[in-house]
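Example (one chain per record):
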Amino acid sequence: EQHTLASNDVSDVLGKLKTKAVIKIRFYILEKVQEYKKPMSNYQVLQETLLKFKYYYEFLVIHSPTTAAEIKIEYVDTVSKVYFSYFKTYQSRLIKLEYEEVPTKVDVMGAEDESKRSIQLSMFSTSKSIRSRSTVFTLGNRDDLINNQLEWPVIIPVHSADKKFPYEAIFRSVQFSLIDNVCAED
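Predicted structure:
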């Protein structure tokens, strides 16, 4: 009976302490999530910071599931916007490094319409690329990508501004970058 009296004396204090901890943890984690929205923020460093405090989130899951759900929704929403923006920019920069002679809508089924593409990439350009159908469909050294270059690092547009790549290399680079980022998110 004394044990029960002692726990009753402390339960109010513990309840208030738990509520205060939930409020402070919620504020702290949401503040860290908001840092993702700042331009030029290094989201990998932010993720490592959040991982250091994963016990805070586990505390919320146990003691305030609604707050934990709110934080999860905010995190997923914010990070999905960051990844979308990152990959949209990355892919648009890589497409500029693509060889000029690529199949058009006339050459293959399912190809992007050239008129839309030229408007998107160079709105004020009047020059047309001269196409040679024989070079568009030749294999060239594109099979080397599958045989030897599959595990090469991803293409970084800033370092490769003076080079041109086949579409397969650009596709591989985007896919590997996506996989790398998804694995880091886990």
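Caption: The longest helix spans residues 2-34.
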